[in-house]
Design a protein that fits this description.
Layout: H1 2-16, E1 22-26, E2 55-58, E3 62-68, E4 73-81, E5 93-100, E6 104-111, E7 121-130, E8 135-145, E9 166-167
Parallel strand pairs: 2-8
Antiparallel strand pairs: 1-3, 3-6, 4-5, 4-7, 5-9, 7-8
C-alpha cells in the first residue's frame, strides 16, 4: 500500500524538476524558474532586474557557487553590463570556462571581476551546456567594487564542493 502512494508522489516530483539543471547559490540569482531556464540570457528573467538585491563584487574576487543536476556539463561564467540590450550581448566578458563531471554543489573560489566596470550595473551570467545539446541560463545582479576579496568560503561551507569533478 505504501509503495502505491510513494511511487506516484516521486514521479510527480521528478516531473516538476525535469527541466531544472542547475541553481545558482552564490551570488543571489535574479530569479529561478526551472521551466524557463532554457531562455537566454537569464533563464526567463530580465537582465536589468535588481529587485532581489545587488551583490557587490570586489574586483579582486568573490566565490561563485551552484548546485547542478547534470553529471557532465560545460560552464561559462561571464559578466555583462546590465544595460546591454543587443541580441548578441556585445559587452559580455568571459570570466571562466570549465567542465564538471559530478552532480551536486560546486564552488569556484575568488572569481576576479573587471576593474574597468567598477561602479557600473552588471550581471553575472552562468551558462550551462550539456551533452544532449541543451543550454541553460541563470543570472545574478552584481556591481564590481574596489577593495579586497572576502575570504573564500568554498572550503568551509557545508554543501559546497570546491572543484569537485572540475576540469579547466
Amino acid at each position: 500500500m505504501l509503495v502505491k502512494l510513494i511511487a506516484p508522489a516521486l514521479l510527480a516530483f521528478s516531473a516538476l524538476n525535469a527541466d531544472a539543471r542547475f541553481i545558482v547559490t552564490t551570488p543571489q540569482p535574479i530569479g529561478s524558474d526551472p521551466q524557463r531556464q532554457r531562455e537566454a540570457p537569464c533563464g526567463g528573467f530580465q537582465m536589468g532586474d535588481r529587485s532581489r538585491g545587488v551583490t557587490e563584487w570586489p574586483v579582486s574576487g568573490i566565490d561563485v557557487a551552484w548546485d547542478s543536476a547534470n553529471a557532465t556539463a560545460g560552464w561559462q561564467v561571464s559578466a555583462v553590463l546590465a544595460n546591454d540590450t543587443s541580441c548578441t550581448l556585445t559587452s559580455k566578458t568571459n570570466l571562466r570556462t570549465l567542465y564538471t563531471h559530478a552532480t551536486g554543489p560546486f564552488c569556484l573560489p575568488s572569481v576576479g571581476g573587471l576593474p574597468e566596470w567598477v561602479g557600473l550595473d552588471a550581471v553575472l551570467q552562468i551558462q550551462q551546456w550539456t551533452g544532449d545539446g541543451d543550454y541553460f541560463f541563470s543570472c545574478s545582479a552584481i556591481k564590481f567594487v574596489d577593495g579586497p576579496a572576502p575570504p573564500s568560503t568554498c572550503n568551509t561551507n557545508p554543501g559546497k564542493s570546491p572543484c569537485a569533478g572540475y576540469e579547466d
